[in-house]
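Contributing: when you submit paired examples, paste them exactly as shown. First protein:
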Amino acid sequence: MFTENNPAGVKAFMAEQGLLTNHFRLPIVPLSEELYAKVKVYLSKNK
């Protein structure tokens, strides 16, 4: 979750759980596609 800038990791986890939309305004940028894929895999294994 904290591999890249924070709070983008937290927002990615929350977005995947349907708690918010994954939209950003500068200076926050979204997670890389690679890390976002890892978030999805982690959540699918830990529901």
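Second protein:
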Amino acid sequence: MAPITDELSTVFNSAVFVLFGGLLSKGIVLLEKLLIGRTFSVAQFGEINLAIAIFALGATVSSVGLTQGVPRYLPRSEDKKIQRGILFSSLIITGIIAILVSLILVVMTGFLQQALFDRAIPKLALWGFFICIPLFALLQVMVSGIRGLENTRYKVYVEDIFYPVSRLAFMWGLIVFGIGINSVWISYITALILAFVLSNSFSNKLLTLIGEYQPPSKELLTYSAPLMVSAVVATLLTKVDTFMLGAFTSSYEVGLYSAGYSIASSLLIILSSFGFIYLPIVSRLDVDDDSDVSTIYQVVSKWAYILTFPLFAVLIIHSHEILGLVLGNQYRAGGTALSLLSIGFMTHVAAGRNRETLSALGFPRYVLLSNLIVLLLNIVLNAFFIPLYGHIGAALASLLSFVAVTVVVYILLYYLADVTPISKRLIRIYVGLPVCILPIIWVLQALIPISVLSIFISAFVATVCTGVVVYLLNGLQKEDTAIIDAVESRTGISFDVLRSALREYMRI
């Protein structure tokens, strides 16, 4: 078994490339939101996001947890017949269920319009998103197969580059040609068809689907089925506020909330970039029983938090201005919600890959239990806060739910999997960065007139201060050399001086 630093190097090596793809993908998604937000009204923007939420929930149900089961079981066998059986069977199961889900939603369109929408977008647009569900679900399973084969490049090419770029290009072109609100779903379905074809081509280079295969054991489904329910619950955790806003308030409120949520969710880019290769590695470590999962978990969580913090600081202090600059002044009213959601997402970042770790170590049912508990709490909180405070109430409910799920999963990791998710070093960093840096950025924005330049100055100052505070808080450790190894591997540039400085700092 390789030393823990080698496993960390693999995680960070993958993360460097996935981070590039994640940044590009998130940037394109923001451009897409900007295009939709500036082209259509706030109410239409809200209803488009409602339709996308239903589409995402339908795709999650359709995958029956196989997007987690496939990457867990593929790396556990090197037999091509077994691997082919796992991937082929997963695609067939997902395809059948996705078609059924899509048809059910099409039949229920009238009810959904009456319950959640103000009819700011036509029925045809809803049908378009529902038709996208089988394609998206199959694409997710195909990408999960690539993930299970531990290939980072192909995932980034398909999911982070080709799919969002082509979708944005089609959407812009259709809007320019005057197609209107239907441009959104048409661009989705066209990009999904092409992305699925490309993903199949890449997957065949790693594992061709043509040939003999061995049907997967029941263990794949018994592992994945609870995760399907868990994934649905997890999706609802992020979408239930949108659904309840649609039910209790107006599409305008949904639009303001969706604007803040779209930007705040960018805080997950770093954490997500680590996660692509994290599950297969932790799963393999669990089988070999020869590595310290706690250390991997803590190091990944620490660096996800550190690298995300400058963006978090800017979003907290400049929330109203950022919404105005990105989507237009009509969205500035969503600034408070953006600040609350940013705190919630940062709590998620600090928690690290907690639920995924619990799943990889063989406790998917407890992931489901924790998600169910927090979902029920989230529904209660939304039912209480939304009638009182509208979109701000939904943001507050989401923040409290993020905190609750972190506490619950931390407890489960510690007592069930013997994983220590927190350490004194992490506590120093998690508390020290906001205490030391947020007052500086707040004073800075009070002294400098608000503009695009002032926001970039705040981001630069926050970045420099983050590095200084981490150093002063003794936030570095010997396992951090894995990050240097990863950057060297990707760039071909030697960082011996930096590695020597880290070793001197740690007195290794």
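If you have annotations for the second protein, write them as plain sentences, like these:
Residues 4-422 form one domain.
The chain has a mean pLDDT of 82.
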